[in-house]
Every structure is written in C-alpha cells, then in structure tokens.
TrEMBL record:
Family assignment from sequence similarity: Belongs to the BCCT transporter (TC 2.A.15) family.
Transmembrane residue ranges: 42-61, 81-104, 116-140, 184-204, 225-250, 270-291, 303-327, 357-375, 387-410, 443-462, 489-508, 514-534
Membrane topology: Multi-pass membrane protein
First-listed, main subcellular location of the protein, grouped into a coarse class: membrane
Keyword Transport: yes
Keyword Chloroplast: no
Any single Pfam family the record assigns to this protein: BCCT
The protein's name: BCCT family transporter
Locations listed in the record: Cell membrane
GO cellular component: plasma membrane
Record keywords, A-Z: Cell membrane, Membrane, Transmembrane, Transmembrane helix, Transport
GO molecular function: transmembrane transporter activity
Length: 546
C-alpha cells in the first residue's frame, strides 16, 4: 500500500474528532530475542481464548463434535431466514449508495486520487476474496445443485430409478450454475463492500485508526477505545480465525484427496492434519520473509498457475459447451436472482439451508479479513465507483471460472452417466474433495493437471494463512500494520491449530459450525456498520465543497 493511504495524511473532518493515538494502549518490549507490540487487552483475550478452545476441543473431541452439530442445526434450521434477510439487506444498502448522492463522496477526501490503476486494482479485488473455494467448489457446486440440492425445486435429470431424463438436462444445467453463482456473486461481495467501505471512510476521510472499532465512533464516541471497542475487535479476530480455519480445513481435505487420486496416499484425518502442519510451517517461512518476499511472490506464482489451469480446462474440454454454460448460467442467475434470494415461501431446504446459509455465514466471517485488504487498496475511489466495481468485477471473474468448470463437468456427467467419476464423487458416493479430480480424469494429462491442482490448493493455503495472520495481527496490535513478525507467526500457528482441532472435532460440520457461531454476532456488528456509514457519509456531504 502506498504511503498516501496513511490515515494521518487524510484531513480530519470536524464532525468526528478524537485525541486517540494508534498504539497508545499497546504493550511494547522483548521476551529474550522476541519483540512484541500488542494491544494489551485485545491480544490477551483473543490469544487466551484461542488456546483454551484448542485445548478443550483436543481433550473432548466427541463432546465438541456434538456441540458443533447443534450449532450447525440451529443456524441453518432456525436462523436461515435471518441470514438471508441480512445479506439481502446488504445488497439493497449497496444499491442505495450507488443511486443516492452518497455515491459522489470520494474515499480520502475531494482531492484524493487512486493509489492504483484500474488493472492493478481489479487484479487485487479478484485475489482478495478468492482462494481455495474456486478449486474446491468449482466442479462440486454446479453438479450438486443441478442433480441433488435442486434450487427452487427444479426436477432432477435422474429419476427415482436412476435413469437419465434428457429433457430435464437444460433446466438443471442452467439452475445448477445459477445456484452456484448466487453463492459466489454480488450477495457475498456486498458483505465485503460494507466492511471495506466502513474501514475506508473512517480511516481515510475521518482520520481514525485503521481498525474495525473505528466504524463505531458515531455511536460510542471515545468509548470506542475502551471495552466496547475491545469486544468488537475480539469478535473480529474470532470471526477471521474461524473463517480462515474453514478454508484451510477444506484445502487440506482437497489436497489429501488429490494425493490419493494421483499418488494413492490414504485419505484420513491424520493425513490432513499432517498437511495442515506442513503448510502452516511453509506459511511461517512466508511470514518471516515478509510481504514482498513471501505472500506477494507466492500470490504472483499462484495467479499464473491458476490462469494456466483455467485455460487448460477451457481448451482441453468442450470449449463451446463450457462458454455456453457460463452464459446460460449467467442469464438464468439474473432472471432468478430474486426468487433465489427470497428468505420465505420456499421448499428447497437442501439448497437453501445446507448451502446458502453456510455461505452467507462464511462470507460474513471473512469480512474483516478481506474487507481490510480491499480498504487498503481502494483509497481515492468514489463511493459509487467503489461499490459497483467491488460488486461486479470479482463476481464476473468467478462466474467465468465456475461456469467453465461446472459446464465441463456437467457435460461429462450427462454424456457418460454410467462411467463418470464426477457422478460417483458428487452424486453416488458424496466425496466433495474429489469432485475436481473426477472432472480432470476425463481430460488429457490427468496426472499432471491433478498435481497442478494440488499445488494450487497448497499455495492458496499458504497465502490465505499468511494474509490472515497479517490482518489478525493488525487488529490485535491496536491498528498497527508494522508489528513484530513473531506476532504474525503466532497467529499463523493458531490458525493452523484451529483448523486441525475442527477437523478432529467433526470434520466438515465442525468447520461449518465454527463459521456460523462467529457469523451470528458479527452480522449484528455489520448491520450497525451500515448505520455508521450513513452517518459518516452525511458528514462528508455537509463538508463537501460546492
């Protein structure tokens, strides 16, 4: 991030002033060779609670598993309407910002100009909120939604006797892709917009610290630097930890499955724990090398490999079918957006409760992580430009990826339903971590491309852990972005350990539980953010030169 995005360089508008100095409540010092610079309360509570959670889950895995199952059941079965209404509200909020005069406000003040050109900015937006999910769900979701979960009650192409009904294929393909786009499109990115816009407006326009608590200054005033603010930041830490742990756990499952597919390595929790430990060790090396020498280089390598991987699937498979599937899915998504978003009057529980609610919780739990990153690279944009670009540009990239991978897999499935590995892994014997490799099995260079898929998953694993530890360290260091590296290494280790204990305590259901448990209270925090954003933008309009 360029130095011009330093909050100190932004004019402090008269409606929100404070004497608070970033880091004034921090404890600095050394323990032997290890330096530290931590917020005395936020770090202590977050670290202690994380360690206690890890220990208790390891000591009582069965009880922890039962608890996780209860949390998932309550969240998806009882609060499904709540999560859907919250995320729908975020969409409406974003659209209101675009059409109302608030859209003309510039992040950083009237004279601010963007720190990055459009190409660089779009690339960073794409990389911000996307990772392991592209690989894990790119094949799984379109196939599963088209044949099993059946959004909006579409008929399955496979009848009760298992026979394929060719007449149902076009609608199933379109709705399977549209149902996938719902989970990866503007709804999720609207969650990120709220968080990133709050951080941007209060940092760049109001001159407050680059911290989530700053967004609550209009409500709490200087009390935000006390225990109210500590509680907000601690909740953000746990939301980020469990959101990352879910991604890391899914990545370990897919890497393990890929190694089994290519090399015959046993699929087991033990193998996945070993993978998490090894990748966490690599993340620690990346953290130690710093942003330029670590995560930046890995991200560049991963982006090149991901592009090559995408174009291989596009051109080695049925290219026209893949591109046609992307377009059909997109037009169906636009047409069915409102019915797919409706919180009531639906009977597609297998799709809405088992999938959509988990996704909305997952996006909310990732909001502090991705929102901070987006805010750091978006100074100088107008609110209207910011909202439209963050909603639409990454969504379109994801639709293209998911459309090509999903349409290719669906074409394989319906062309050879009796021999398709995609059908075996997604429909007959549900093994979601193997779905990608089932699709690659029908393409040339299966072994090579499956190995590349494993490498991509592992590098996404490392970069997510490294970037996540940076965000958590910023929060627990009182808003400082240059705290000692050992603190980031500590949080990278904690992320890996939480992913491990969640896998031990119940696998995928435990990962889902960790996300939903933190997303419930943090969603309330984000709803309040919408109010404070409007308060801040009203102040900007009052002080805007005529």
């Amino acid at each position: 991030m360029s130095t011009s995005s330093d909050p100190a360089s932004s004019p402090l508008t008269s409606d929100m002033q404070t004497d608070y100095v970033v880091g004034q409540d921090n404890l600095e010092g050394r323990l032997g060779p290890i330096g530290f610079d931590i917020h005395n309360r936020v770090f202590a509570v977050s670290a202690l609670a994380s360690v206690v959670f890890i220990i208790l889950t390891l000591l009582f895995p069965e009880r922890a598993g039962n608890l996780f199952q209860s949390i998932v059941g309550f969240s998806t079965g009882t609060l499904d309407w709540y999560f859907m209404m919250v995320v729908d509200f975020f969409i409406l909020f974003c659209l209101a910002l675009v059409v109302l005069p608030y859209g003309s406000v510039r992040l950083g003040g009237p004279d601010a100009r963007p720190d990055y050109g459009y190409l660089s900015w779009f690339s960073m937006l794409f990389a911000a909120g996307i990772g392991i999910g592209l690989l894990f769900f790119g094949v799984l979701e379109p196939v599963y939604h088209a044949n099993v979960s059946l959004p909006l009650g579409i008929p399955s192409p496979f009848g009760a006797d298992g026979a394929l009904n060719a007449g149902a294929i076009p609608e199933a393909t379109a709705m399977g892709l549209a149902g996938t786009y719902l989970h990866w499109g503007i709804h999720g990115w609207a969650v990120y917009v709220v968080m990133a816009l709050a951080l941007s407006i209060f940092t760049y326009n109001k001159g407050l610290p680059f911290s989530i608590r700053s967004a609550f200054f209009p409500i709490l005033g200087d009390r935000v630097w006390g225990w109210w603010g500590h509680a907000i930041d601690i909740l953000a830490v746990f939301s980020t930890l469990f959101g990352l742990a879910t991604s890391l756990g899914l990545g370990a499952q897919q890497a393990n499955a890929g190694m089994n597919f290519v090399f015959g390595l046993e699929v087991s929790t033990t193998a996945q724990v070993i993978i998490i430990l090894l990748v966490t060790a690599a993340a620690l090396v990346s953290v130690w090398r710093g942003l330029e020498g670590g995560v930046k280089k890995l991200s560049e390598i991963n982006m090149v490999l991901a592009v090559l991987f995408f174009f291989f699937v596009l051109f080695a498979g049925p290219t026209l079918v893949a591109l046609g599937g992307f377009w059909t899915g997109l037009t169906t998504y636009v047409k069915e957006l409102i019915p797919l978003s409706a919180p009531i009057g639906r009977d597609d529980d297998a799709y809405r409760q088992a999938w959509s609610i988990f996704y909305w919780a997952w996006w909310i739990s990732w909001a502090p992580f991705v929102g901070m990153f987006i805010a750091r690279v978006s100074r100088g944009r107008t609110v209207r430009e910011f909202v439209l670009c963050v909603l639409l540009i990454p969504s379109l990239f994801i639709f293209i990826w998911m459309g090509v991978f999903g349409a290719t897999a669906l074409d394989q499935l319906y062309a050879s339903p009796d021999t398709s590995l995609v059908k075996e892994y997604v429909i007959d014997n549900y093994s979601p971590e193997l779905s990608l490799f089932g699709m690659l099995n029908e393409l040339p260079l299966t072994g090579l491309m499956s190995t590349l898929g494993i490498i991509l998953a592992l590098i996404f694993f490392v970069t997510s852990s490294d970037s996540g530890s940076l965000v958590i360290d910023t929060i627990t260091a009182g808003g400082k972005i240059d705290a000692p590296r050992p603190q980031r290494m500590f949080w990278a280790t904690v992320e890996g350990l939480i992913a491990i204990v969640l896998l031990i305590g119940g696998g995928l259901s435990a990962l889902q539980a960790g996300v939903t448990a933190t997303a419930i209270p943090f969603s309330i925090v984000m709803l309040l953010m919408c109010y404070t954003i409007i308060k801040a933008l009203n102040g900007e309009l009052r002080h805007k030169p005529s």
